[in-house]
Amino acid sequence: VLAASMAADVFIAQLTEQTGFENIVRAMPGGESRLANLRLLQKYAAEYETGGTGGLSGFLRFVERLRRNRSDMEAANVVSENADTVRIMSIHKSKGLEFPICIVAGCGRQFTAEHGDLLLHPELGLGMRLPDPETGTRRTTLPREAISIALSENASSEELRVFYVAMTRAKEKLILLSTVRSVDTTLERLAAQITPEEKIPAFAVNAVKSASEWLLFCALRHPDGEVLRRRVALPERCVVREGYTPWRVETLYLPPEEAESPAPEAAAPVDEAFRAEVEAALAYRYPFAAETKMPTKVSASGLAAVQSPEAGTRTLRRPSFLSAKGLTPAERGTALHDFMQFCVPEEAARDPRSELRRLVTEKFLTPEQAAAVDLRRVERFFAGELGRRVLRADRVLREQRFIAPIPMRLVDSSLTGDAAEEPVILQGAVDCMLEEDGVLSVIDFKTDRIDDRARLWARYGTQLRLYAEAMSRVFRKPVGSILLYSFYLNDAVGPDGA
Question: Is the distance from CB of 214 to CB of 194 less than 8 angstroms?
Fold first, then answer.
């Protein structure tokens, strides 16, 4: 109870003093670091105490929350500022400090520039690229270019200020490390911007890509930089001698060592067993390679187009601006299909013209499609045997969409064995399906202008067989017949044109 009401820092101080815990910690490996962390814990406890009245129990709960969240407090630093050690820090953190030897790495780091479509400036405001209405491309604007120049100047000034801080941290020796992709190319580009004026032009200072280029600017104009000036034929009148401080400028070449060619070694004897093992591995053929080339899902119409020799290209729907000239034959066929899909069979058989007006009124068909529907062919369909079966059927399903598994042998007849029975997903839509006494009949409506019944079946028979396989699997009922109904022939066409 006493500990719970005591301040956390006071409790830690009394605990370490009365138990001699400081001496125990100091005797452990890394004792100085451990003792510094213990004293830092006491400091954290005192800071916690000033923020509230939680006492020791509150501080313990605070430490437990840190542990659960996998957080931590900063550890104590036992290294003094004057210790003989190597310290690694950012340039910003080194500000105000000095060291005997300072190494500035990464002077060749490329400066980043603003290249976005939208730029903001506290004084110049907003600048953006705008789309060209004629070409659709995005082009820059004058405000954006002005803001880009201003931001570039500000960024260059900041980089130069930071680089100055880095160069003034050394007491005795300053080492600058940089990499240049091509020394001669870089020197030539920089030398082209140097003038006899005392100062390097402001545009040249702002145009540099890294801090190393600022250094090369100075080295080219320094009296001791003759080695660099000779490489780019820079005249001596560009040298600045005021405030001269000796430099040592050299170019070093490290020629590749000439390695003696080792004597050829005798070829090792061939391990025939290992050779046979490698050849067998290289000759391995995946036994299920054929299945890897099969699609996981196919469409009935697409598969039929591949398998059927009569399947060819189909006319695509025309753009709407061409429809003013009238519907194409394919579009007129689509209109007749839509009528057969959405009509009420009994009403279409009794009064097809009234049913057509209903479909237009209820937006199933457009007036242009309705004008293209040949109602005489609709009357002949319902007057025929197949139309009467539709009216008498126990159930009629139209535009029945499905997704069903079928064996791969229906997709690729060259497969045999277990591979032929592997499932593949088939998707499609059946124009019309009848159920009569538990037996299904699959019907597909066609408007092709073909007189040859056998040729019509050759074109669409494969597709109908796939429909039949899918319907039998989806509804788990036998398919008794598959039929094409040709509105051009006004008759049903069975397998092989029967």
Answer: no
Instruction: State the residue for tokens 């535009």.
Output: 399
Please state, in angstroms and rounded to a whole number, the distance separating the CA atoms of residues 124 and 282: 67
373: amino acid identity, one letter = V
Digit-coded pLDDT (tens) for 36-87: 888 888 788 887 777 766 677 777 887 888 778 777 666 666 555 566 778 8
Distance, in Å, from the CA atom of 140 to the CA atom of 146, rounded to the nearest integer, reads: 11
CA distance 190 to 163: 19
- Say whether pTM exceeds 0.70: no
According to the 3-state scheme, what is the secondary structure of the chain?
CHHHHCCHHHHHHHHHHHHCHHHHHHHCCCHHHHHHHHHHHHHHHHHHHHCCCCHHHHHHHHHHHHHHCCCCCCCCCCCCCCCCCCCCCCCCCCCCCCEEEEEECCCCCCCCCCCCCEEEECCCEEEECEECCCCCCEECCHHHHHHHHHHHHHHHHHHHHHHHHHHCCEEEEEEECCCCCCHHHHHHHHHCCCCCCCCCCHHHHHCCCCHHHHHHHHHHHCCCCHHHHHHHCCCHHHCCCCCCCCCCCCCCCCCCCCCCCCCCCCCCCCCHHHHHHHHHHHCCCCCCHHHHCCCCEEEHHHHHHHHCCCCCCCCCCCCHHHHHHCCCHHHHHHHHHHHHHHCCHHHHHHCHHHHHHHHHHCCCCCHHHHHHCCHHHHHHHHHCHHHHHHHHCCEEEEEEEEEEEEEHHHCCCCCCHHHHHCEEEEEEEEEEEEEECCEEEEEEEECCCCCCHHHHHHHHHHHHHHHHHHHHHHHCCCEEEEEEEECCCCEEECHHHC
Query: What is the C-alpha separation between 495 and 442, in angstroms, rounded?
Result: 12
Among candidates 424, 427, 431, which has minimal Cα distance to 410?
Answer: 424
Handedness of CA 369, 456, 425, 291 (dihedral sign): negative
Model confidence over 196-232: pLDDT tens digits?
777 877 777 777 778 888 888 888 888 888 888 888 8
Cα separation, 376 vs 371, in Å, equals 13
The 10 Å Cβ neighbour count of residue 343 is 22
Q: Which two tokens stand for residue 450?
A: 């073909």
- At 309 the pLDDT is 53
- Beta bridge partners of residue 81, listed in sequence order: none
